[in-house]
Amino acid sequence: MLNGMRILCCGLLWLGTMSAQSKWKVPKDLASIPTYVKVPAFGQLTPIPGLPRVLIVGDSISMYYSAQVREVLRGIANVYLIPDNARSTAYGLKNIDEWLGDGNWALIHFNWGLHDIATWDGPRQVSIVDYEANLRQLVKKLQGTGARLIWSSTTPVPTGSKNREERDVLVYNAVAKKVMEEAHIPINDLHAFIESRSDKEQLQRPANVHFRPEGSTELGAEVSKHILAALGSKSD
Which partner from 4, 13, 221, 228 sits 20 to 30 angstroms from 62, CA to CA? Predict the structure, then answer.
């Protein structure tokens, strides 16, 4: 009887975690911002038993490309997106335990940066010193899950974007690269991927960090490629 109760409780916890991590909700404080670009819904997932579980952690850039990742990995992996905007590393530290849930992840693709460098009429949300310290703590949390990890560099900030500067992206990306290399975490350099594209001005919105649908599709394809490569080498 006791074992039966334990199985039931574990099953309910598992179902609750799966539900919480598969449905996106736009936080009220973000939805109220006039310039906030509405994100497409990331629907509830009916997981396929036996497939590896992949978690995507990131800000609204990842929210746009996650649907494409799920489509590419259909039948290969169950793809989840955290039910929140990961925002800054400071916000991430406050919420990472909830986002990780039961921790039964085969792979986690993650990023923080665009919110850390944002000024919003004041200093940067997270200083470069705190950004590095926060990233190190977050990496330890993620490593504790036993999942394969992939860091994504922060995507470019177009000229004229409000509250953010491309020069800050370069500095914060460099620090993140150092942290990931020291932790032996592979890097999906989405910044370089976008910068290398001859059509980058058509992929990203003008004076806006967000991408057009075509850009999000391209980002999703690039993210999928790195996830597939990592899952394929899981026995290495």
Answer: 13
DSSP 127: -
CB 163 within 8 A of CB 118: yes
Measure Cα distances from 221 to 148, 182, 209, 226 in Å: 19, 27, 19, 9
The lowest-confidence range among 22-26, 223-227, 229-233 is 22-26
- The string of DSSP codes covering 183-195 is TT--EE-HHHHHH
User: Would you state the CATH architecture of domain 2-232?
Assistant: 3-Layer(aba) Sandwich (3.40)
pTM of this structure: 0.84
Q: How many secondary structure helices (H) and strands (E) does the chain include? A: 9, 5
Share of the chain above pLDDT 70, in %: 81
Q: How far apart are CA 37 and CA 39, in angstroms?
A: 6
- Give mean pLDDT, residues 51-77: 95
Q: How many CB atoms lie within 10 A of CB 108?
A: 24
Strands 148-152 and 187-188: parallel
Contacts of 148 (CB under 8 A, 6+ apart): 106, 107, 108, 230, 231, 234
